[in-house]
Amino acid sequence: MADRRLTPEQLRLVVLLAVLVVVGGIAVGRLIRQGGLAVVAGGRAGAQYEAHELPRLAEFATPEDTGAAALTSRNPFTFGVPPTPTPNLTPPPTRPPLPTREPRPTPTPRVYVGDDGNVKGPPPPFDRTYLGYFGPSHLRVAAFRRPGSVPETVEIDVGAEGEVLDDIFIIREIGHESVIIGFVGYDRREDTRVPLADD
């Protein structure tokens, strides 16, 4: 009778096959218990996602997804029509308006009236400084200072109301802070007020 004992190599193969069968059975059992992929007769077309009740991939397809539109929307390397650039809506800077100059009226030349009512040229300027007055109120005498005929000299003129200086200037009125001077041959409207000197 022939010896049917297994050689050590054959024994290892049998043990390995047994282990594989046990591991495969455990794996299949876990998949079934966890609601794994159930294959229905009909091959791959019959596969259903029972675990999460997900719809079939074919249900996502719409009539609009067919053709070039579907390829464009699903292909990340296909670029569609470039977007229209947004126009620059920033308004150009505006210059501030130039200041408008109001027209200035042409000054009308001063008209001087003589004591006879006729137009005359301007009277000579009063070239004296009013220093004040002395005497009683009913007989005031005004004092004036003017440059002397010699350089760096000063001359003092005095006069009461109504007197004429240099045959041109009439002392009309003497006051505490000013004196009114008139001009010979000119209307009283041309009189000028000379203030009291500060120094």
Concise structural overview:
By secondary structure, the chain is of the alpha+beta class. The chain has helices spanning 8-33, 68-74; strands at residues 112-113, 119-120, 129-134, 141-147, 154-160, 164-165, 169-174, 178-183, 192-195.
Task: List the quaternary state of the chains.
Answer: single chain
Separation of the first and last Cα atoms:
163 Å
Low-confidence stretches: 38-47
Described by the principal axes of the CA atoms, the overall outline is rod-shaped
Count of structural domains: 2
Question: Strand tally, please?
Answer: 9
Structural category: alpha+beta
Report on the biggest sheet.
4 strands, antiparallel
Strand line-up of the largest beta sheet: 6-7-8-9
* Spatial extent as radius of gyration: 63 Å
Mean pLDDT: 78
Percent range for β-strand residues:
15-25%
How many helical elements?
2
Helix content: 10-25%
Q: How do the helices and strands follow one another from N- to C-terminus?
A: HHEEEEEEEEE
Could you walk me through the main structural features you see in this protein, from its secondary elements to its overall organization?
By secondary structure, this protein is of the alpha+beta class. The protein folds into two domains: 9-74, no CATH class; 112-195, no CATH class. The chain has two helices and nine strands; from the N terminus they run ααβββββββββ. It has helices spanning 8-33, 68-74, and strands at 112-113, 119-120, 129-134, 141-147, 154-160, 164-165, 169-174, 178-183, 192-195. The strands form three sheets. It has a four-stranded antiparallel β-sheet with strand order 6-7-8-9, with no helix packed on it. 6% of the residues are buried.
